[in-house]
């Protein structure tokens, strides 16, 4: 089973999305964070290879690893899973949190997994079948993340006209 310790894909996605939002001048409209489904790497910086690959694109990965916490389901309007295993783990977290939280003042949770992360997974499948994987695999991950984050931001802005205003 694959679990996320929040040191590679999710901090890279956070940094890519943060960079994109910043370029659009929308920093004040978003609260962007990443978290893992396990706390194994809690307190650690992101993987040095991912930080290096991102930095070459002008994207700083500065997040510190942390596990998902119950308040995330209250504080964030949108929580994305990086793969099916993490989606399942987040669903279990949500069920446990729902038992303890009787009132959620904000939108509980949207999983764009079917829309955005499925696109990311299918893109990965297309890259994976190019044998062998190139030495530039981290670059490919960043390509996928940039495409997915651009689509995600476009979707958010289309659904929330007031965000871009």
From TrEMBL:
Stated name of the protein: Phosphotyrosine protein phosphatase I domain-containing protein
Species annotation: Oryza meyeriana var. granulata
Database matches in Pfam families: LMWPc (PF01451)
Cross-referenced InterPro entries: LMW-PTP, Ptyr_pPase, Ptyr_pPase_sf
Domain (Phosphotyrosine protein phosphatase I) ranges: 4-155
